[in-house]
């Protein structure tokens, strides 16, 4: 048995049509992500139980955000990032979560950030440029969100600068560079066209 | 003890998000604690497992503690107030989420959302189908890791190869499942018979609106400590 | 009765790839029980998905012709209408259910075809009674055995009242009892409910007196030919393994017990895998052979003791254990760690546990022997099924763990490739003194090269005494 039937045709029209297979595909990826997060949450926990929690948040944020841009570059349609990220968040909340309601809310905000990035290219670029925009978009949007949700506006200005830079690096790497590498590999396999 | 039927799952989801969103902007320790207590009372009323509840609450303690402490160290202005707001907020979110996740089975929740809040059947049943594979996906993850170790490699979180393997499995399995469901007559966007019974009396929507409005009024007009 | 036929059908998976079918004509005889055979990888699954209307929706493209169901192009009928006429059972029973329990699954299917609400419960009761599955109503599907899952899938199809039932290798994960039961059920559906049944199977046993037609799909010129039913009377060549004197070895297990999804697979087994020899692990489908290999690789929980050089497996971490015990997975794509075939081989060479043996010269020689030298620059996932198998095998042989477990390494290999692959395993195992255990349903051309046979049946693992041979 080998993977021969698994050819995924990216829908050329930009219509937001989600097939049953798209949904199951992203849900399975999200469950894998959930398992990865579970294994890695120990490291996060160790750091998050100290005053360094904001650093822990921003350092690991990129990993949490990956599902959105990944869905975007794999399915290449408008809305893919935000729905992809929401799907991942829903899987997180229903199967694994210890963050409760905030999982879904943050998922939505993160997805919007990514989506805005891809939208800036008019949904025409799903490559480097699109990913750069999406990484910037989600860094800025999530940071604004955290000013309120996580109370970042109570922190001193110098800490904020540090956190923003760390967040940009984390998102830039995981949700930008790494997603770009993954996309390149996946397309080389010829399983998604 | 048998579980008691709580509020409708769709209603609970709307309450969770409807309060969760303004909660992110409210600056009140008192209200956070009120939400925590109400959610706890609701959970106890619904007779969820006390042991699980305690374990989940305990697991979040380090997170709440980290938030609390970070404001004492890095905070500006009224550090103590900030520390208590954001420490208790972790629990307010968590307990709000638990009123949904600990009370409804995933299937009931998704079908309820399909019935009352127009979640497309493709999403509801697609998610359900994927959730059934949870145990196998876990097993598959260990197998992916082992296949690398057998070749003297370890997959790390930052390596694209790991994700490639995951994506290939997801491609194959989603194809199998979707094809099987299609063969069983599932048609995207088509009408289906609905046998799922999920009563949603009018008063529950009124309660939802009442709760969200009074929360917003308390949080942004009264603004208690 | 409803007719289903492929007319002048040509199909390929990708524009750049060759045709799987070229102007194929095939008609399923209404009301009959037909069996389609052919080697694995010859296109049986592809044909079935085309007949069921799942392709091209789920992959590939039709170049010429069409599949006609009751006068209509099958791919253009809406699934909820199509399901009443044709339905399919899949190779992997666990990946065909949307819901958690038997009754939820049946309800889901009936909702799809918009059966009126009041009729759903009685329809479920009715089909469960047909298959004596009444007690299964609330059971969770993922805890059922492969055979039970296939029976539930069949009950789903009967509930949908599909006239034509296609079964693609439905017994791949089903044990002998389950297989007999299912074949009996299918025959009843044909006789009592006038269903048309088409099964794809590489194993002809058990079909005598059940199948009305026998077809063969040839992989070289993908055309379907009708064969006489007398071919179902198989000559009873058993291809025994003659038992050699067993060496001592490093990997052993004591009181090993395996349980999966509430089913007992193996009870209290003891054995030591002999060094430098090749063993066959045999037994019916679904009896637990793959699970045993997974347990020995520390990928499946077990009770009892597995040890390496008297040291318990629990004292090794997974990473260390995987340097001692290697597993050639049944599914090739589960093995590949790199993107191209060349990188796959290079990785093994770099990390080989026997770098002195696996010199560049030896590797090149093996690549030529397996006819892989020309495809090194290709992406693993783009290779044919046979090439993937050979690449997978070679990359694990180069790693050369002291214990090598192989799960169906010959599936889909042509006779020449099989011979080369087996010889390579033999040479490597003897020269490097590896302990190897092979699961293979293919016995012809394999058994004479092996040293012993372990049979897994009735939860017991038995060393078969096939005429002691000291040669």
UniProtKB/TrEMBL annotation, chain B:
The keyword Transmembrane applies. The chain crosses the membrane at residues 31-48, 55-74, 115-134, 155-173, 203-222. Keywords: Membrane, Transmembrane, Transmembrane helix. This is ABC transporter permease.
From TrEMBL, chain C:
Keywords: ATP-binding, Cell membrane, Membrane, Nucleotide-binding, Translocase, Transport. It is a peripheral membrane protein. Gene3D superfamilies: P-loop containing nucleotide triphosphate hydrolases. InterPro entries: AAA+_ATPase, ABC_transporter-like_ATP-bd, ABC_transporter-like_CS, ABC_transpr_CbiO/EcfA_su, ECF_ABC_transporter_ATP-bd, P-loop_NTPase. One of its GO terms (cellular component) is ATP-binding cassette (ABC) transporter complex. It is found in: Cell membrane. Pfam families: ABC_tran. SUPFAM superfamilies: P-loop containing nucleoside triphosphate hydrolases. GO terms for molecular function: ATP binding; ATP hydrolysis activity; ATPase-coupled transmembrane transporter activity. Residues 4-244, 251-469 form the ABC transporter domain. The keyword Oxidoreductase does not apply. PANTHER family: ENERGY-COUPLING FACTOR TRANSPORTER ATP-BINDING PROTEIN ECFA2, HEAVY METAL TRANSPORTER. Belongs to the ABC transporter superfamily. This is ABC transporter ATP-binding protein. It comes from Liquorilactobacillus vini DSM 20605.
